[in-house]
Amino acid sequence: MKKLLSLLLAGLLIAGCSSTPTNNENGGETAKPNTSASVINVYTRDGSSGTREAFEGAIGLEELTQNAIEVSSNGDMATKVGNDTAGIGYVSLSTDFEANNIKALSFEGVVPTVETVLDGTYTMQRPFAFVTRAAGDFGSDEKEQLVAAFIDFLQNSTEGMAIVESAHGIVDMTKGTPWAELAKNHPIVTQDNSAITLVTAGSTSVSKTLQAALEAFQPMAGNFQISMNQTGSGDGYKRVLGDEKDGANAADIGFASRNFKTEEDVTNAMTTGVYCIDAVVAVVNKANSLTNVTGQNLNDIFAGTVTSFTDVK
Amino acid sequence: MSTKIKDKILNTITYFASGISVFVLGAVLVFLFSKGFSTLNWDLIVNNYWSQNLLGTVDSVGGDYTISEEVDGIYSARWGIALKDNVNSQKEKVIEVTYIHPESPLKTMLSSSAGDNNKEITLEDGYTIQKIDIVTSDGIPTFTGKIMSQDAATVISNIDSAQKITSIYYKTTGGGIRSSLITTLYLIVISLVIALPIGVCSAIYLHEYASKSKLNKLIRQGIETLTGVPSIVYGLMGVTVLFPVTQLFGATTTSILLGGLTMSIILLPTIMKSTEEALIVVPQSLRDGSLSLGATKSQTIFKVVLPCAVNGILTGVLLSIGRVIGESAALIYTMGTFINDSPKLLSQGTTLSLMIWSFMSGEQPNFELASAISIIILVIVLVLNFIVKAIAKKFTKNFA
Fold first, then answer.
1. What number does CATH give the domain B178-395?
2. Where are the transmembrane segments (chain B) (predicted)?
């Protein structure tokens, strides 16, 4: 009995030996591309990616095919699909398609452009929404005015929009007003605000755009302090208006990379809205003749039920 | 089966097992160093994470700052500044200043931020240009720079053709991990200061004073079970139960103190267990000898038994330090995820492992930076190990 056990143990150890280190070394690549051109190679992002979350949500994907190849970033995805004639993947709209030798696919017949995203016809998109604490609940008047000024800067000023756009958010630049004009409504920005700390919470996907905007606003508004605690969309509402609004993790502005749900009642907020849009685009290699896909097509491909481009209708 | 074959099999298994551990350890090290070593440099360690955002008033039409030597990047003789496209450690594109003429109007400016009272600010090499407010040759005020997703060449041509520059928004060099390094050491000290006396004393009680009653057995069992509780549960407990305690000290948010309190609870079982193990191996003859010389029980314990157990207690300290450095789940709830450049007892902060968490949880996981931080963590653990071992050597009294 003992011998049997020890042999079994040895067997297990050998099995463990062959699988553990490989996972470590290639940074989580899960499958190798198939070289035969007729079989689709599905590329996907790592599990923590917000783009992946948005993409899978938009096509209603329940289970990803086991043959999917995992890539580590947006740029990595573009490069790999650009080098694989049988590859399909998804990137954010701001990617340089031409330079990476990839082609953006229309979704449900709509070409992905900034215009179609903004007018809502291109549906593979998600809003970056924000919500503030209730008016009078900021602890001080100065802070409330500062939050209002920042939201105005983020949402309406040319500078704020340009910053969000440079951090890859989609905004309608034509609607911007120069900050110099808007600043007149916010006398708070001409004071020394270094004693005030703006605390943000919520989605991690908004981090890049939010951080860029906060940092740019800081010297324009009396050097206030920043504290960004981005943990996930669910915490955005909770920490400014929900259960945790007076707890240790309370925040002034909450963010979500989706619309606020019906159970997240934002009517009490001082202000709420959407400051930019993130769009996901399905891409194939330039050599591919495919130009348009539907949600069902993508669902079939990414679930692994359709494995050849000739079957995509 | 003969004994010989049995022995062989058992031997092979041990060789195999240790071989695998060495291999895995090697693989992890190779992975970390191959990914992170190139990112590692002194600036990363000493710099702040957040760059300072500065807004300077310029209001100048430029001059002639022609230079004879070659400079990196594209040079504008009218403004005396050279810019270059670069990528920072966060993998973001930046427009970096590679050279600035000492007499350039952009070199020394007055800050236009409210509250700075027209403080003098300077532009140095390595800083990044975010936005330059200009007035075009047609007299229209506009701006150029990284926030318009432009590259260095465009910015230079825009400012060269402009009528004048009114103000400039730039960032100092950031992206360093200095603050997290300090927070990590801070947290180690706080949690050990709280957990060590409590842990050691309760271990002494359980081993030396407590009778072998059912209740004491239950307590010991309970403590051993605590080691198996997931740290995220401690984190949730910390933020609900311990937060009011830190509020008494004036905390308004999650803080390093709250993180330290939570960590000290996580450490208690480890310290108690290793102290008790150390007390067990102190020979009974020492206690008997001390008592027969007329020393009281407390004198015996604190002057004879405890010094012999120092080695074991320090092993507990070593394990605890490792635990504090490696912890992240409990700290997300109790210390926040904001990288704070001036960590204080009652402010939020991130340890190095939390910093890795936040770099890896973003839209574009940054393996290189995470690996570089891991290397630094390994070095810290190694150094602390040596220090603790040196202390142990100094304090150990060998009675046996």
1. 1.10.3720.10
2. 12-33, 185-206, 226-243, 249-268, 304-325, 369-388
Could you confirm whether domain B51-171 is CATH 3.30.390?
no
Nearest to A82 by CA among A69, A71, A98: A98
Asked if A189 and B55 touch (Cβ cutoff 8 Å), the reply is no
Q: Give the separation between CA B86 and CA A30, rounded to whole angstroms.
A: 32
pTM (predicted TM-score)? 0.76
| pLDDT-based confidence at residue A7 (cuts at 50, 70, 90) | low
ipTM above 0.85, yes or no: no
- Angle at which helices B306-326 and B352-361 cross, to 10°: 20
Q: With contact defined as beta carbons under 8 Å apart, do A249 and A106 qualify?
A: no
A10 CB neighbours in chain B (<8 A) are 9, 12-13, 16
**Separation of CA B223 from chain center:** 29
- Say how far apart CA A160 and CA A177 lie, in whole Å: 10
Domains present along chain A, CATH in parentheses? 39-125+279-311 (3.40.190.10), 134-269 (3.40.190)
A208, A227, A244, best to mutate vs chain B, most B CBs in 10 Å: A227
Exposure of A305 by Cβ count < 10 A (0-12 exposed, 13-18 middle, 19+ buried)?
Answer: exposed
Q: Which residues of chain B have pLDDT under 70?
A: 1, 361-365, 397-400
* Nearest by Cα to B305 from B321, B328, B285: B285
**pLDDT tens per residue across span B288-329:** 999 999 999 999 999 889 888 888 899 899 989 999 999 888
Taking 90 as the threshold, does the pLDDT of residue A43 lie above it?
Answer: yes
Chain A and chain B share a number of CB contacts under 8 A equal to 139
Contacts of A17 in chain B (CB under 8 A): 20, 23
Q: Measured between alpha carbons, how far is B212 from B286 in angstroms, rounded to an integer?
A: 21
